[in-house]
Amino acid sequence: SNARGDTEKLLKQIGAWEEFGSTGWGVNGTEAIFGTTKTSHATGSETLYDKFFVSKDIERRVEKRYAVDYGREEIANALRRNA
Fold this sequence. Notes:
Layout: H1 3-13, H2 17-21, H3 49-52, H4 56-66, H5 73-82
Helix pairs in contact: 4-5
């Protein structure tokens, strides 16, 4: 499950994909909603990921700590099961 796939599925179910989701997004307005164009953070934070998440353990602990903040309770539950 992901934002792009879920949004496309929902918009198709209500007959709004072509009008509101399939195009009109992205830098040039030619992409679907939640398209694949990679945009950079203004702070360049994406380059810091490998610096701070040097192990799977650290990454797992951070995901567990912030899962609820990001509305991803299913991540928190999965991490609890695998702890």
